[in-house]
Amino acid sequence: MKCSDFLQELTNYLDGVLDARTKAELEDHLAWCHNCYVVCDTTKKTIEIYRDSQLYELPDDLRTRLRTAIMSKCKQKKAESSS
Amino acid sequence: MGTIQPKVSEPVSDELALVQAAKAGDVGAFEDLVRRYDRNVFRIAQHITQNREDAEDVVQDAFLKAYGNLAQFQGQSKFYTWLVRIVVNEALMKLRRRRPERMVSLDEDVKTEDDSVPREVADWSPNPEQLYSQSELHDILSRTIQGLPPSFRTVFVLRDVEGLSTEETAEALSLSIPAVKSRLLRARLQLRERLSRFFQKRKNGGDRNGGDHNQ
User: Fold this and answer.
1) Which domain holds residue B167?
2) What pTM was estimated for this model as a whole?
3) What is the band of A45 on the pLDDT scale with cuts at 50, 70, 90?
């Protein structure tokens, strides 16, 4: 397996959707190719950092304000459609 | 090396009952759906628009559009996938309005030269996120994902941040499964490349100005 083949399968590998044989070939490549090992490991960390970062959390006060605005418009729509 | 584990759990089974009740005119049931998904909707909207005000507008517009079109939700997909489709469309519309000079489309399969060939192959620190305060880290993550084309960051946020499956992402974005996979791979690799400048091990220890060096 070449490094470019490894890269092509990287997403499937990290998502755990490879068949056993391809997975074994990839892991065989990882065992001796340090660069691919680092790319694989740091790609995994990239995903985990974004997933666990709580980036763009909705603050409670804004959350309440938005929901109040949404629900008042929904009630208005309902009243219009039933009148 | 293990696979990544999605953090999002399956929606609870009463969701369909809430949708049916909302369809039948129960506004309170719709409010429960808003509570259930407003944080996700805001996160997706801000990832795509990269603008706080736009993201607030998208949250309101998307839920109102969902409310107005509940009759069209047939239940073949999850309510959340159906909602995400509306959110992405609203967010892209905002982006187009703000950047009319640039075509913004999910269909673009942006080809930049060798964008997926790793150049940075240094190991990262064992706990890279601990190198920075939370606000510094958020700033780094935000600036880094901003640099991706909208079509890439949309796929990345749905798959890797929100935990949608490849199939759900394809459905929400009207893309083929190979198109989702190709964008996801390139998004992950480009983010990895850019984050490496901040998170790689420092030879001289303690130096956190790695972002300045040229690659």
Assistant:
1) 128-212
2) 0.88
3) very high
Measuring CA to CA, which residue among B197, B196, B162, B166 is closest to residue B184?
A: B166
Average pLDDT over residues B111-118: 62
B91 and B149 in a single domain? The answer is no
User: What share of residues in chain A are helix, strand, coil (percent, to 5)?
Assistant: 80, 0, 20
Of A46, A56, A66, the CB nearest to B188: A46
Mean pLDDT of B121-148: 92
Task: Grade residue B25 by pLDDT with cuts at 50, 70 and 90.
Answer: very high
Output the domain CATH number for residue B179.
1.10.10.10
Count structural domains, chain B. 2
Predicted confidence at residue B206, as pLDDT, reads 47
pLDDT band at residue B113 under the 50/70/90 scheme: very low
Q: Do A70 and B1 touch (CB under 8 A)?
A: no
Residue B3 belongs to a domain: no
Contact check, Cβ <8 Å, B166/A47: no
State the CATH number of the domain containing residue B25: 1.10.1740.10
Please give the ipTM for the structure prediction: 0.92
Chain A contact present for B25, CB below 8 A: yes
- Please classify residue A19 by burial: count the beta carbons closer than 10 Å to its beta carbon, then call 0-12 exposed, 13-18 middle and 19+ buried: exposed
Distance CA B161, CA A65 (A): 25
Q: Is B33 in the A-facing interface, judged by CB distances under 8 Å?
A: no
Whether residue B21 lies inside any domain: the answer is: yes
When pLDDT is cut at 50, 70 and 90, the band that residue B7 belongs to is low
CB contact under 8 A, B185 and A47: no
| Residue numbers in A near B125 (CB within 8 A) | none
What φ, ψ does residue B5 adopt, rounded to 5°?
A: -105, 125
List all residues 6 or more positions away from A3 whose beta carbon is below 8 Å from its beta carbon: A29, A33, A35, A36
Alpha carbon distance B201, B20 (integer Å): 53
In a domain, B109, yes or no: no
